[in-house]
Amino acid sequence: MPDLEDLYREIILDHYRNPRNRGELDTPPAVRAEGFNPLCGDEVIVYVRLANGVVDDIKFGGQGCSISQASSSMMSAIVKGRTTEELHRLNRAFKSMMSIEPDPDDPAPANGNGADIKLGDLEALKGVVKFPVRIKCATLSWHTLIQAVEEAQTTG
Amino acid sequence: MALDPGAIRADFPIMCRQVHGRPLVYLDSAATSHKPRPVIDAVTDYYERFNSNVHRGSYQLAVEATEALEQARAKVAQFIGASQDSEIVFAKNATEAINLVARTWGRANLGPGDPVVITELEHHANIVPWHMLAAEQGIDLRWIPIRSDGHLDLTDLDRLLDGARLLSVAAVSNVLGTINPIRQLADAAHDAGALMMVDASQYTPHLPTDVAEMGADFVAFTGHKMCGPTGIGVLWAKSELLEAMPPFLGGGEMILNVTKEGFSTAAVPWKFEAGTPPIAEAVGLGAAVDYLNGLGMEQVREHEVALTGYALRTLNQRYGDDITIHGPTEPAERGGVLSFEYKGIHPHDVAQVLDRSAVCVRAGHHCAKPLMRVLGCSATSRASMYVYNDESDVDALADALADADAFFIE
Q: Which among B20, B346, B410 has the least Cβ separation from residue A65?
């Protein structure tokens, strides 16, 4: 079996023990979205406040395993201050690292498949791919973020 | 005579398997049990020697297949103390058996405001079918609460049962292991004019089952948790109820006659078995019943009580306040299902670390989300034991648990 050390990298455990941006934001102006993993009961709540197409602030809550909590924490840290376009590119790059096929409905611009974007701390989650059951734990926060951003954009 | 898990293990081919180079420590029998050689052989034998479609066949193979299916029915009937073989309806699993009751008896007999009573410790299989009837027919779903010790809180039972049409309860909780007082509940239901349904999925594999002693009107259970194949479950119901219930699915096998104008139904139990039944699976279930009878269900239960006692003592002595084991503390009051929390480490992570030592436990909500809410958690780790487990499996669990500290405890 792959080493557990590949899964539980120190930087992941650090985000798990000391999560960044855990909390809530006032809605409105922020938007709140909930994501569930029906298999294990993990839940992630994401609050996003957009201003002029930029993630002005983000918080997350919910309950889950070290991977889902660390992924939420890393995600919140990396998207804060980014444009929604950059956020979508990060999402695509992260999903691609998780071996998830791009969504065919997603009109990714030719140069926006995310290949050029730096994932930073998120790179530490690469080892999750060796534990396929846990991929959903790592991607739950990103699915929920996209849901929140889409809602924020439709409600204006 | 006490069970000899070492000898029993030799009956289960999968126990020879190594996982990550280590011997398998299987502690997930509440999810599904392993299959002994006689069950695997019975299924193979069916396909190799007399595979054919049942009923209506006039050739030898079809006669043999039909006999094998009906023999399996008779074995199951005898195993649970049914008074007639025709009271055994084969379904896909316990979930389908419960849905069958909700869709047939429920649709025919329940209307707006009719109370159906369940408990907070039910599996989703005994919750969602009633939610569906509440949405479609406006039934009033009521919940018996649980106490902090994992037993049902029956303080308000009379009030909850007032006007009730059905009480439907798990005989053993798949999360807490709690053995519920089924006879007492059945008597109370009948006194209130309600029928009694028992979800015996975690009971029939582990304790001697007698549907008459339970005082039940409907009993549902599944084959794969009692050494049988997947894809075969059982609904037992009293003959007069089955006779009066409308059919479930429509199609072949379940009819007496079909015309352009309509149809009439076959006799019970075939009325509820539309389409080609799971023949090989039923034959396998019959072999599982033979296997369990060979061990003796009294002995199966004695073994479970002894091993559960050992597990509770071992884990509590070794980990003290670092471990919380949910459910009753007395082995005699519970099944061999141990849901636990360890040092606040998420169950997913606990199960992942245990897997490295080939220790198989389940992590999650165990299809009992309302119960998780009552327990105040979103998930637990669950170790569950069966006839092939012994003290060495419990020791392996206890040893491997400490490995989680290296990652999650600073």
A: B346
ipTM of the complex: 0.85
Amino acid symbol at B248: F
The answer to whether B374 faces chain A, any CB pair under 8 Å, is no
Domains in chain B: boundaries: 5-30+296-408, 40-294
Q: Which numeric CATH code is attached to B5-30+296-408?
A: 3.90.1150.10
What is the set of domains in chain A, with CATH numbers? 4-155 (3.90.1010.10)
How far apart, in whole angstroms, are the C-alpha atoms of residue A75 and residue B188? 54
Residue ranges of B 311-370 with Cβ closer than 8 A to chain A: 346-349, 352-353, 355-356, 363-365, 369
The bridge status of strand B233-237 relative to strand B88-91 is antiparallel
CB-CB contact of B31 with B339 (8 Å)? no
CATH number, span B40-294: 3.40.640.10
Q: How would you write B114-164 as a 3-class SS string?
A: CEEEEECCCCHHHCHHHHHHHHHHCCEEEEECECCCCCECCCCHHHHHCCC
The structure tokens listed for B193 are 């004019």
C-alpha to C-alpha distance for B370 and B358, rounded to whole angstroms: 30
B227 part of the active site: no
Catalytic residue among B16, B227, B360, B367: B367
Two tokens, residue B32: 């599904």
Min distance B180 CA to chain A CA atoms (Å) = 26
- Mapped onto helix, strand or coil, the DSSP state of residue A134 is helix
pTM confidence score: 0.93
Give the pLDDT confidence of B238-289 residue by residue, as tens digits.
Answer: 999 999 999 999 999 899 999 999 999 999 999 999 999 999 999 999 999 9
Looking at chain A, how many residues does it have?
Answer: 156
